[in-house]
Amino acid sequence: MPVITCIEDLKRLHKARTPKMFYDYAESGSYTEQTFHENTTDFAKIKLRQKVAVDMSNRSTATDIIGFPATMPVALAPVGLTGMQHADGEILAARAAEKFGVPFCLSTMSICSIEDVAENTTKPFMFQLYVMKDQEFLASIIERAKQANCSALVLTLDLQILGQRHKDMKNGLSAPPKFTLPTLLDLATRWRWGIGMMQTKRRHFGNIVGHAKGVGDTSSLSSWTAEQFDERLDWDKIAKIRDMWGGKLILKGILDPDDARIAADFGADAIIVSNHGGRQLDGALSSIRMLPHIVEAVGDRIEVQMDSGIRSGQDVLKALALGAHSTWIGRAFIHGLGAMGEVGVTRALEVIHKELDTTMALCGERNVKDLGRQNLLLPEGFLTEYGA
Ligand SMILES: Cc1cc2nc3c(=O)[nH]c(=O)nc-3n(C[C@H](O)[C@H](O)[C@H](O)COP(=O)(O)O)c2cc1C
């Protein structure tokens, strides 16, 4: 097994082992990719305060995320087509998460279905919902998540219309891939991926194909999804979904303090400060820059979680110190999955956990719950430059 010391190592292997169209699908943002890049470069602008001669024994990274215990304040974010990064990807990632003791969230646009993941795991996982126009499908997918005993519904609010990702169009992204000459040439060098895919039956959008009316194959699927995202989604519809679900609810994609206030008044269990990993509104501010403004607006009224740009335990620490209760990772675990399947996801979690623990100690803290602004040095204007 190669020596993996950081998420960047997993990223390199992911690139080498996974078909270009799926690696590119993960490693891209919308349009100019400005927000995608700033999600990570803004983390790098935040510096840490070193503290010495403080007792650093008996450290703890344990926390609870909407009331569920977790070994660290990190969850695996919903990622569409995870089962195309590696055969049976959603099941493998969910298993790695449950063994590590952190939450896993299954995307609506997953390859393995809700039922499939439930059958192949032992602990409840969260389910992420995209709101579709087809009311029958919407009701049935919520019911299926209930039947599978999902622990929370993560309602994504920032993708009712799709931000364009140039690479996906140029690569002709589809699941499963269409066998064009460039795709075949590319696949010839990714034999591990190909063998895995030949051995699994899970190669289509498992939550949708066979469940939504008029979607029997992948060619009808792309037009169905493009038409199906409900552009009329508003707070009234969100309230209806909350009532249909009846369980714990997390609102994902909040990036503005006013929206955060509405979400807190609405009474969800948590919000995720997120710009969808820079894949939607290109030109939006990075999540880590918006986070402190949102915490200031609603911090004590609702659990504030964040994602977008986290590639290390240091990044997790910075988000917690700026007021996030917990964080989510997308690409960081997808790189692990594409590199080495379940072992790779476990490795990604181990890397981030170790970095978080060591960095916390060097900052003179012993418990993730004690992290705060005292641990950070922010560049001048970091909080005020854009007047958020
Ligand atoms: C390849 C990819 C697919 C994604 N698919 C979904 C999805 O189906 N549903 C969703 O709510 N978010 C989706 N996201 C967004 C993630 O849940 C998360 O917000 C984002 O990855 C966080 O940024 P990071 O990748 O920099 O950690 C996706 C992200 C990526 C990279």
Describe what is shown at a glance:
This protein has 388 residues and is of the alpha/beta class. The chain is built from 16 helices and twelve strands.
Give structural notes:
- It is a single chain.
- The protein has 388 residues and is of the alpha/beta class.
- The chain has one domain: TIM Barrel (Alpha-Beta Barrel).
- The chain contains 16 helices and twelve strands.
- It has helices at 7-17, 20-26, 34-45, 82-85, 89-100, 114-119, 135-147, 166-171, 181-188, 191-199, 218-228, 235-245, 257-266, 287-298, 313-321, 331-362, and strands at 47-48, 63-65, 68-70, 74-76, 105-106, 126-129, 153-156, 249-254, 270-273, 303-306, 326-329, 376-377.
- The strands form three sheets. The chain has an eight-stranded parallel sheet.
- Strand 5 (105-106), helix 6 and strand 6 (126-129) form a beta-alpha-beta unit.
- Helix 13 (257-266) packs across helix 14 and helix 15 packs across helix 16 (331-362).
- The chain is globular, with a radius of gyration of 20 Å.
- Residues 25-26, 39, 77-80, 107, 109, 128, 156, 252, 274, 276-277, 279, 307-310, 329-332 line the site of flavin mononucleotide.
